């Protein structure tokens, strides 16, 4: 199949590109490189032996997206592009609502103009806003997020569901994934955020490698086993495999459907830090700080629907996630800005 990936130079997008190319799909990537690097595109080619077609463009640019969809003529689109920092979304909600909705509208209009109606959408477990008890199942409403980033995902899921209901030619997969960590086993691609990391795993590895002094754990008084937040961490390679399974689903079905992508097992912040200490063999200092606005105490998946309907399940555990994350970080201590690996 011919697959267009928006945000394909990013963390999850690059790993999904590798997985799709590895199974024989032809991949075109569009990314504005605002939170990613052209080096990732080069390394996708190194890993797979097949350079993806790349367009540097903002998905909100309707003219550019119309040209790109026309030239790529994709059988399906995987849509990652968007802003994704929970804390920043609380501070700058207008930016998040405008960016994430506009980019999706632009993409949908370009797809519709060229008769492309198969879409895999990058949603999030943040659509479960605390009105439910984990493990979260796909039909567990109400879907009201605790932060503007998550609310953009809630809104877009509703919009995409309406699009598919209005026109039976559409096939749309809504993938609600939990907390991706890890990296490709080669150590060539991994999570490389610009500036200070918003996600926990790259923050931990940057402390371990010496780029940051310590971890601030956001809240130590939650109603959990050790007082720190519990999350469902999933290896990015398992997540990429889930996207590939969803691409196969939209090729064969119509309508819209949602799936959780997670392990179904909660891990606390302190437990994750200890796993990285074991993987790296280095001290990882941390201190407990105040809770962060928009965070939940506990969140993990019921992923049985994905196993039943997509034939997908997460295969890797926390030790492998930590080991692969650390391999990426120690090989690339400054991320994609590293020219040569350390001696």
Question: Which outline best applies?
Answer: globular
Strand order of the largest sheet: 3-2-1-4-5-6-11
Give Rg in angstroms: 19 Å
Class from secondary-structure proportions:
alpha/beta
Beta-strand percentage range: 15-25%
> What is the correct CATH architecture of the largest domain?
3-Layer(aba) Sandwich
What is the chain-wise order of helices and strands? Answer: EHEHEHEHHEHEEHEEEHEEHEEHH
Please name the defining characteristics of this protein.
three-stranded mixed beta sheet, UDP-galactose 4-epimerase, domain 1, seven-stranded parallel beta sheet, alpha/beta, single chain, Rossmann fold, 14 strands, about 40% helix, about 350 residues, 2 domains
């Amino acid at each position: 199949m011919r697959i267009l990936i928006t945000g394909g130079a990013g963390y999850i997008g690059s790993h999904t590109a590798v997985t799709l190319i590895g199974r024989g799909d032809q991949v075109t990537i569009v990314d504005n490189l605002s939170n990613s690097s052209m080096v990732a595109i080069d390394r996708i080619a190194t890993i797979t032996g097949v350079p993806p077609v790349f367009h540097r463009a903002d998905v909100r640019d309707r003219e550019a997206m119309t040209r790109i969809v026309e030239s790529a003529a994709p059988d399906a689109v995987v849509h990652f592009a968007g802003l994704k920092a929970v804390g920043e979304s609380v501070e700058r909600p207008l930016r998040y609502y405008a960016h994430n909705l506009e980019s999706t509208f632009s993409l949908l209009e370009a797809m519709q103009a060229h008769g492309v109606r198969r879409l895999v959408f990058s949603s999030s477990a943040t659509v479960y806003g605390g009105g439910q008890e984990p493990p979260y199942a796909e039909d567990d409403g109400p879907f009201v997020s605790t932060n503007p980033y998550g609310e953009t995902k809630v809104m877009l899921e509703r919009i995409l569901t309406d699009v598919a209901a209005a026109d039976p030619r559409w096939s749309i997969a809504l993938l609600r994934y939990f907390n991706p960590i890890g990296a490709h086993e080669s150590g060539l691609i991994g999570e490389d955020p610009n500036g200070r990391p918003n996600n926990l795993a790259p923050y931990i590895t940057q402390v371990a490698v010496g780029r940051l002094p310590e971890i601030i754990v956001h809240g130590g008084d939650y109603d959990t086993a050790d007082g720190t937040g519990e999350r469902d961490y999933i290896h990015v390679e398992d997540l990429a495999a889930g996207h590939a399974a969803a691409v196969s689903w939209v090729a064969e079905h119509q309508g819209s459907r949602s799936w959780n992508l997670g392990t179904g097992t909660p891990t606390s912040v302190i437990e994750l830090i200890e796993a990285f200490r074991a993987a790296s063999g280095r001290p990882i200092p941390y201190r407990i700080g105040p809770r962060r606005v928009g965070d939940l105490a506990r969140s993990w998946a019921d992923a049985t629907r994905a196993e039943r309907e997509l034939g997908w399940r997460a295969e890797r555990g926390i030790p492998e996630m930590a080991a692969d994350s650390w391999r990426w970080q120690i090989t690339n201590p400054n991320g994609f800005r590293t020219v040569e690996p350390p001696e």
